[in-house]
Design a protein that fits this description.
This protein is α/β, with parallel strands linked by helices. The chain has one domain: TIM Barrel, CATH 3.20.20. The chain is built from 12 helices and 9 strands. The chain has a 9-stranded mixed β-sheet. Strand 3, helix 4 and strand 4 form a beta-alpha-beta unit. It is globular and about 45 Å long.
């Protein structure tokens, strides 16, 4: 795989600083039942990196001591971590809001038949990847048969009340194909709701549009096709200063499967340590540290979060 790190180091992106830490985004491992073209984590069924129970316990301790409000679980497929349910239960017992970034098809896999019921029982917010409401577009990005599996997963979640009951939030994620920015989130959400309701009877709460980052698998694809410079220019030309205030890295700390901390999920994939230190820091080292006001590590990929309407793990910023 061609890496884009060296092409991103030199940057004129404005320096940004942290505010109060509210969200801990934890990657439970790179193992996944899918292998998507746009995946910045490079997750696949072949990956073996999985967070251990010892690190899970350290995450729970960090959450309790730092008064974290939201635990955002990612992967790979986070549900494939054998300690996923334990972490969710302990976080919920602490009164923490839990998010599961679900690829939907995992809910249909052998051994995960009870996962949808578990998520509903614990009132876990589900944020699910659904790059389009058209089968051809989804399968070209995420693999043959993924669209039909995703529809079945959404219907299953609806059966348990997701997207219908107020306490069971079901949000979808759109990633554009090719070298383009996401369209208007508000307008696209209306189209999604209309198409999925009319075609499949599916209901959901919100649609989040997320810009593809020029790193890992997507970055490698850009390099292979000779489109990296063009895409980076698009991001820079579309820079919006107004989006700086809402960047997710201001209130979120990203944690990898080994327990090391990063300023965001994308920096984690680039192995870029936090702005606190040139060396990687473990969450155990940050329990007694107030990171409010500290600098955030930046490189050229940061333009992806500020381009156009802005982008975060919670969708558009504008």
């Amino acid at each position: 795989m061609k890496e884009t790190f060296d092409l991103l180091v030199k940057t004129d992106f404005p320096q940004i600083k942290r505010s109060r830490l509210e969200t801990l985004q934890v990657n439970l491992g790179y193992l996944c039942n899918q292998q998507c073209l746009h995946c910045h984590v490079d997750a696949s069924p072949r990956r073996t990196e999985i967070m251990t129970i010892d690190t899970i316990n350290e995450v729970i301790d960090f959450i309790a001591k730092k008064d974290i409000k939201t635990l955002d679980l990612t992967g790979g497929a986070p549900e494939m971590n054998p300690h996923f349910t334990l972490l969710v239960k302990q976080a919920r017992a602490l009164g923490v809001h839990v998010i599961d970034r679900c690829n939907l098809t995992i809910l249909l896999e052998k051994g995960y038949e009870d996962m949808a019921a578990f998520l509903a029982e614990n009132e876990v917010e589900v944020i699910a990847s659904m790059p389009c409401y058209l089968e051809e577009n989804v399968d070209s990005q995420r693999g043959k048969g993924v669209f039909n599996g995703s529809v079945k997963g959404l219907k299953l979640l609806n059966q348990f009340g997701y997207g219908i009951e107020d306490n069971l939030q079901l949000n979808l994620v759109f990633n554009p194909q090719g070298i383009s920015l996401p369209p208007s989130q508000k307008e696209l959400e209306l189209s999604y709701k209309k198409e999925l309701k009319q075609r499949f009877g599916i209901s959901f709460n919100n649609l989040f549009t997320i810009t593809n980052m020029p790193i890992k698998r997507f970055g490698s694809t850009l390099l292979s096709k000779g489109l990296f410079d063009e895409y980076m220019q698009l991001l820079k030309d579309s820079f919006s200063k107004e989006n700086l205030a809402g960047l997710m890295c201001r209130t979120t700390l990203s944690v990898d499967w080994q327990g090391y901390a990063y300023d965001c999920d994308f920096n984690q994939m680039l192995n870029l340590s936090t702005g606190l230190s040139e060396k990687k820091m473990h969450i155990n080292d940050l329990v007694q540290t107030d990171i409010n006001g500290e600098s955030i590590a930046i490189m050229d990929h940061c333009y992806g979060c500020t381009a156009g309407q802005g982008s975060s793990c919670g969708g558009a910023l504008a």
